[in-house]
Amino acid sequence: MNAGTLMDLILPLGLVVLAEIILRQRRAAEAVAQFMVFGLLMAVAWVRVDAPDLALTEAAIGSGVTGALLLAALRRIGPHREPTRPLPSPARLPVYTATLLLGGALSWALIELWSDPVSLTAAVDARLAESGSSNPVAAVILNFRAYDTFLEIGVLLLSALAVYTLAGSRGRRSLEEPGPVFQFYLSRLAPLFAIVALYLVWIGSRRPGGAFPAGALLSGVGVLVLLGASPWPLGLHRKVVRYLLVAGFGVFLFAGLWGGRYGAMLTLPPEQAKAWKLLIELACMLSIGFSFTVLFACCAGWLGDESGEGT
Amino acid sequence: MNPQLVYALAGAWICAIGLRGFMGEVDTFRRILGANLLGSGIFLVLVAVARRAPDGPPDPVPHAMVLTGIVVSVSGTALLLALLARLHEEHREEGEGNE
Amino acid sequence: MEMPLHYLSNALVLAGIFFLFASALGVLRFPDTLSRLHALAKADNVALGCIVLGLMIRQPNALLALKLVLIWSVTQISSAASGFKLAQQIRARALREQRPGGESAP
Predict the structure, then answer these.
(1) What percent of chain A lies above the pLDDT cut of 90?
(2) ipTM over 0.85
(3) What's the gap in Å between the CA of C101 and the closest CA on chain A?
């Protein structure tokens, strides 16, 4: 047994144990801290199963932005939280039975599945040349399953709109003074991360990367900028905010309709595919990054509809 | 045994633990945590399944699903948290009104 | 010629692991948040620094070795900034609660 195998045993086991610890933790803030650690370990697990783009997305969004959202919401809920009491005992039995059934059934199914490795790799590779990118994941996201991605960007937009509407003016708080060290850090590193995000979109057609990891990175930067007390992402003109939120969905829709001239909706002619995909990915990156910044600002109570005019 | 199976099984049990958190907690905030764990477990299962062929590159389709899924799950979490925070603020105002 | 360098690399990585372990112990066992923060900073600079240095010796590609340095330096700056932010919060809370522990913040 070499070190890699040992790690492949310890890491999954550690993830399961940590999941259990998170739910047993009675103090919510500590549960959130442990959830963020869980996200980071999950990112390491993604690297171990050959998914570096997922690792990047998970580290930036799954651990970073989710953690920030959870903590911000927790602070707004404050001491008025519901008391944490255990589930009444008559309800426990069905819950635990369902848990064990799900875990057992999934494990059994996976072990059964393992002897029969069906894969769509060949199907994707066969038409990879038509997609305008040599990274198969990018081809699936933007060509073969473009409907899924399109609707997912739609879900993100809807959620951002709903949260923006819910924010209200009641819980409005002001940003805090960040101090010189943090401002120095932001002014040097935020541009660096923005460049990395652009690079990820650019490289996404050939290697792991693309709009989703890049947007995740940008949203992390957005949250940091807000923590650094510079409200410029929110201080933009209202119209600009709206355009940025809608950019991904809008460009995707336009590209889909444009492609409709060549056949079905959301089909892109192979010779134009590369340019369109770059455009779509850039717009999606901006929308993903900006939506999460807005979501965080709303959850933290920093952004509200002060005029009360609705959206 | 393929080491990826260990990750898949871990994902299965993280799903189970997350489901318990989702159903078996009284506190809404904890339910949201449970739902997130459930999601993470599903992602782990999907990506490990993508890797189950002993050699060759991983299956890109589950990867793409998980990549977009992470983003969607966080936006769902944000919506739940915003609803929860708003609910608490409404309750608090009601409480203040009664005093 | 190759062997002593490999020993040096191994020694550095082991030293990094030792510091990582020590700082994890510190985070678990130190009594208050500020000293825990101090232990955490050790993990970020000394432990990661040793490991990066050890791996650089092994890395034949100069560009990749430089990327390792980049990782270390970005972690340095991030660690300093987040440590500062945390300490600031701790100090603000201590001042709010009117405890004398407030001035122990750096």
Answers:
(1) 9
(2) yes
(3) 20
